[in-house]
């Protein structure tokens, strides 16, 4: 039944992505604009003087990442928007600081690591990135070893260790369709398609990572 539903929705997911890409000649996430007098009210906290150095570091790193990364530029743009959406949920200074540092960490990863050996996926629902964002990464560690890790993002006001639910599995190329999450002992069935990854499970309590993911390449 899941595969049938995936087949029916595949065109919506893939075509929706390409339609949006057609309207974006240059993929570029906007830097944090704090100099303008017309800055939105929700930027008041992040634009305060105490975050000046972090903002500068983030904006410079963001610009650099678009020039040097071998990760898909659409991935940088979409993950930036997801991060920005989470940051707007912050209710205190500690949360804002954490989110700035986390995005800087992400961009350092995208610019310093060889992304050609990593497949990046975001969960999609109804042709759009899922409202509860989930990111999966499939790393080719060696010829015979694959690392699959994922993060299901939660409220950024939670304690740092509970802001995301992790998934971690190690497997081999010939066994990557059936994995065991080392974090929660959840078994998942992975169906790799040309532009999609379908994750399924029959275990109760493991449904969070179940769904359809789109490949960024």
Automatic annotation (TrEMBL):
Keywords: Signal
Residues annotated as signal peptide: 1-29
Name this polypeptide is given: DUF1311 domain-containing protein
Species this chain originates from: Acinetobacter lanii
């Amino acid at each position: 039944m899941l595969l049938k539903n995936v087949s029916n929705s595949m065109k919506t997911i893939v075509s929706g992505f390409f339609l949006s890409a057609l309207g974006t000649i240059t993929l570029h996430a906007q830097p944090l604009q704090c100099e303008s007098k017309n800055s939105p009210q929700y930027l008041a906290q992040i634009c305060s003087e105490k975050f000046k150095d972090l903002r500068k570091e983030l904006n410079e790193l963001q610009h650099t990442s678009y020039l040097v990364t071998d990760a898909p530029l659409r991935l940088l743009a979409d993950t930036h928007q997801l991060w920005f959406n989470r940051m707007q949920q912050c209710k205190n200074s500690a949360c804002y600081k954490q989110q700035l540092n986390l995005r800087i960490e992400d961009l350092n990863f995208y610019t310093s690591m060889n992304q050609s050996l990593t497949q990046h996926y975001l969960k999609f629902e109804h042709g759009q990135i899922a409202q509860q964002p989930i990111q999966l990464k499939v790393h080719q560690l060696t010829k015979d070893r694959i690392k699959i890790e994922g993060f299901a993002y939660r409220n950024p006001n939670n304690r740092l260790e509970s802001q995301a639910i992790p998934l971690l599995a190690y497997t081999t190329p010939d066994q990557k369709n059936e994995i065991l999450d080392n974090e929660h002992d959840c078994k998942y069935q992975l169906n790799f398609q040309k532009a999609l990854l379908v994750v399924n499970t029959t275990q109760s309590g493991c449904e969070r990572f179940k769904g359809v993911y789109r490949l960024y390449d």
